[in-house]
Design a protein that fits this description.
alpha/beta, four-stranded antiparallel beta sheet, 13 strands, binds nicotinamide-adenine-dinucleotide, binds manganese (II) ion, NAD, Lactate_DH/Glyco_Ohase_4_C
Length: about 450
């Protein structure tokens, strides 16, 4: 009998927590559970989530599962088996600045891409390294399953400071793309073995083998993408921003029909179109604050008021299931295949070995086993990736060395930036806006 597991959610107050816990409860046969701990630095958000999760456990009949919320890392991590990490250093208020500052200078303003992503990266490295440090101290045998963004940057930072950490870095975007394609064009994703390479939020599919149909379905999907735009599916269904992002996949595919792209490439390949469509006074952060964040507060409020019906209001989809599948794969040696963010080390043979890349990997009792693509990638993809990797590495250098010069080089090299003058203007404004969070750069 597998020992009942203790799961700690770092960033317990995240609006994604109910969806993740729902997936944990749905998979209790594969992931037996003794305890859920919510760890956050914001007591109010953590307390709200405590009420919501307590309500869910009761509703689903999990009487024996212990739940706690704490701001004390020792209590949160000691004895824990799995840490699901999803923190957002600076919260949505700082996300809003990441998006609006570059937009005010006419550049892409986005959570994880462009200079917004770089500003977020500088904040996030600090918060995530602190958590990884706590886990090394209080739960050195636990696995950290990380969703905290921007993934490429924080993965590079963790790789440098804690190269032996038991940590898996993952992004839900590929699974969400696959689900959306399958729903729109009438496939069953469960039959798929997709192959993909890139950096996080910066990659391409090379094939999608369908086990039932016994063929690579990528060419026919590309054909469909160029003629018939997709409707957003999965946990983002009905969301206008995501609809636009998925529509951009058709634009990319029409112009570059060799591969299915990750939708996030829109920020690097069509920054002008993205900026044209953006509202610099009302960005994604505003939508999320008025949507998911408000819904979460309302759920907690209703529970405090003693309401018992129609309380739960959150998106449930592949995001929670994906991280739970990773945990069960480790625990039960299931050897499932995921797209994971790992040091390259030859997986993409003609890309620098020390890049952090996103490629298929099998997960089992011994950890992560990435596959090697064997074939070299094209100059087009390689050129785009090399520049992006170098920019990200310079940013991580800037963080560890406290170097203004490296930060300026990183900002200048970012693929959404047309010149060093605007890079410097935005960097200086970001330093001011992030005083509380960034290391001092000299
Ligand atoms: P959120 O702001 O709703 O929640 C994040 C929580 O983290 C907040 O409650 C906040 O108080 C807490 N927090 C901040 N700094 C902390 C620290 N140092 N220690 C502990 N807790 C801290 O944000 P969200 O929208 O739920 O997103 C959470 C994170 O997950 C973000 O980094 C986001 O980019 C990421 N995310 C990643 C994926 C992926 O595919 N990799 C998907 C969705 C979200
Ligand atoms: C996808 C990406 C995440 C990103 C999230 C943003 O899930 O994979 O990396 O954080 O979208 O979604 P939001 O609804 O907060 O804009
Ligand atoms: Mn992601």
């Amino acid at each position: 009998m597998t020992k009942k597991q203790i799961i700690t959610i770092a960033g317990g107050g995240s609006t994604y927590t109910p969806g993740i816990i729902q997936a944990v409860l749905n998979n209790a046969d594969r992931l037996p559970l003794s305890e859920i701990r919510l760890y956050d630095i914001d007591e109010q958000r953590n307390d709200d989530m405590y009420l919501i999760i307590q309500y869910m456990l009761k509703k689903e009949g999990f009487k024996d599962v212990v739940i706690s919320s704490t701001e004390d890392p020792e209590k949160a991590f000691t004895g824990s088996d799995f840490i699901f990490s999803q923190i957002r250093v600076g919260g949505m208020k700082m996300r809003e600045k990441d998006e609006k500052i570059p937009l005010n200078h006419g550049l892409v303003g986005q959570e994880t891409c462009g200079l917004g992503g770089f500003a977020y990266g500088m904040r996030s490295m600090n918060g995530l390294l602190e958590i990884v440090g706590y886990v090394q101290e209080y739960a050195p045998n636990a696995w950290i399953l990380n969703y905290t963004n921007p993934e490429s940057i924080v993965s590079e930072a963790v790789r440098r400071q804690y190269p032996k950490a038991k940590m898996i870095n993952a992004c839900d975007m590929t699974i969400s793309i696959e689900e959306t394609i399958a729903v729109n064009y009438g496939y069953d994703r469960k039959n798929w073995i997709p192959t993909y390479y890139g950096l996080n939020h910066f990659g391409w599919y090379t094939s999608i083998y369908d086990k039932e149909l016994k063929r690579d379905v990528m060419p026919e999907i590309i054909e469909k993408l160029t003629t018939q735009e997709m409707e957003v599916a999965d946990f983002n269904a009905g969301d206008k921003t995501w609809q636009e992002a998925f529509s951009m996949m058709s634009v990319i595919t029409k112009n570059f029909p060799q591969n299915i792209p990750n939708n996030y490439l829109e920020y690097y390949l069509y920054p002008d179109m993205v900026v044209e469509h953006a509202d610099k006074d009302y960005t994604r952060a505003n939508m999320v604050m008025e949507g998911r964040e408000k819904n979460t507060k309302e759920m907690a409020e209703k529970i405090r008021d003693g309401a018992t019906e129609d309380i739960l209001n959150f998106n449930f989809g592949e995001h929670g299931q994906y991280i739970v599948d990773m945990a069960t794969s480790l625990l039960n040696d299931e050897r499932r295949r995921f797209m994971l963010i790992v040091p390259n080390q030859g997986a993409i043979p003609n890309l620098r070995a020390d890049a952090v890349v996103e490629v298929p990997a099998y997960v089992g009792a011994t950890g992560v086993e990435p596959i090697s693509l064997r074939e070299p990638i094209s100059d087009f993809h390689k050129g785009l990736m090399e520049a992006q990797v170098a920019a990200e590495k310079l940013l991580v250098d800037a963080y560890f060395e406290g170097s203004y010069q490296k930060a300026l080089q990183a900002f200048t090299l970012n693929q959404t930036v047309p010149n060093a003058r605007v890079a410097k203007n935005i960097l200086d404004e970001m330093i001011e806006a992030n005083k509380e969070y960034w290391p001092k750069l000299v």
